Amino acid sequence: MVRTGGASVTAGPTLAVVAREAGVSVPTASKVVNGREDVAPETRRRVTEALDRLGYVRRPRFDAAKTPGLVDLVVHSLDTSWSGAVLHGVEAAAHDAGLEVVVSAGLTRTRGGRPERGWLDKLTARGSSGVLFNLAELTASQYAWLEQHRIPFVMIDPVLEPPPGVVSVGAANWHGGVTATEHLLALGHERIAVIAGHQRKMCSTARVAGYRSALASAGVRHRPEYVRHASFDESVARRRMLELLDLPEPPTAVFVCSDRMALGVYEALAERGLSVPADMSVVGFDDLPEARWIAPALTTVRQPLSEMAATALRLLVRMMDGERPESTRTELSTRLVERASTAVPRAPAH
């Protein structure tokens, strides 16, 4: 067992175990791991499947002194404005620290649903001094690999609660949910729905908890049918908004837990011939550029993505220098940005 900041995680299997699982010799399994060409395709397939199934991670020839000015940033994807904000924050902080950053869209999934190990192999080859993970969901063996080889790392907005001792940076999501809901309550709305992201994701559950807390504090009844989940997907959010509109008593306002999902909400309202904010007030979350571009401009909760990323890089630098942060969790404040997508509820027709 390997301990990760006080939490025990199981180290990965040995190459001998992988070879036995695949029905080959250890030297043959080693050839596959090291990318040798002199292996039959069928044999390579069996070994590769065994590597993925068992979660084997190649042992690195890691030497932090090899490239002391290099860190890795592993992002969920590179095609969103979210990623752009994170990249901007990391690049600026890395420039100030005299570091070079290698960016990769890693942690993609294989057909079996297991995270690929490509970023580990690349990290090994580069000899990076530390790693930043954005929106990452690491396995126990990956945490163990990083701990075994003493590679400092920081999580930016982790998908799930990381093991104790793992350093992470995020936003005050609960407070953001409270702020968004209180804004709608102050306008006079009581029938307030929420379209959240993934049910199990940390930030999503915190935002919904803040929404519920604000309703309770105002003495407004919580309606379970007003809580929908859309996996942070624009098209799914559109469908969830249509479902809300089809309720016997639809909401007059909706708190959407990401700006991208709010685009889907706008689309659903337009399909039904409803306008924002006259027929439906909408509040988003993130304050991405899209929030300013859509019409009407979106009232949203700003989470400081670039600042979160820069903070994570600065924490990583301290860890690379042998320091340990006083707290493993750093939360940056959120704030409401009022634009044109919210208004008092329309008076009921008599």
**Rough outline:** elongated
Secondary-structure class? alpha/beta
**Number of E strands:** 14
Tally the helices: 12
Helix content: 40-55%
Largest sheet, order of strands side by side?
Answer: 4-3-5-6-7-13
Q: Which whole number gives the mean pLDDT? A: 86
Largest sheet: 6 strands, parallel
Instruction: Tell me the fraction of residues in β-strands, as a range.
Output: 15-25%
Q: Please compute the radius of gyration using only Cα atoms.
A: 23 Å
Which residues sit in consecutive blocks of at least 5 with pLDDT less than 50?
1-10, 60-67, 108-115
Distance between the termini: 70 Å
SSE sequence, one letter per element: EEHHHEHEHEHEEHEHEHEHEHEHEE
Explained architecture:
The chain is α/β, with parallel strands linked by helices and 350 residues long. It has helices at 15-22, 26-33, 41-54, 81-97, 118-126, 140-148, 173-186, 202-217, 234-245, 259-271, 289-293, 305-320, and strands spanning 2-4, 7-9, 70-74, 100-104, 131-134, 153-156, 168-171, 192-196, 227-229, 253-256, 281-286, 299-302, 329-332, 335-337. The strands form 3 sheets. Strands 4-3-5-6-7-13 form a 6-stranded parallel sheet, sandwiched between helices. Strands 9-8-10-11-12-14 form a 6-stranded mixed sheet, with helices on both faces. A two-stranded antiparallel ribbon has the order 1-2. Helix 4 (81-97) packs parallel to helix 12 (305-320) and helix 9 (234-245) packs across helix 10 (259-271). The longest helix is centred in the N-terminal third of the chain and has 17 residues, at 81-97. Residues 1-10, 60-67 and 108-115 have low confidence and may be disordered.
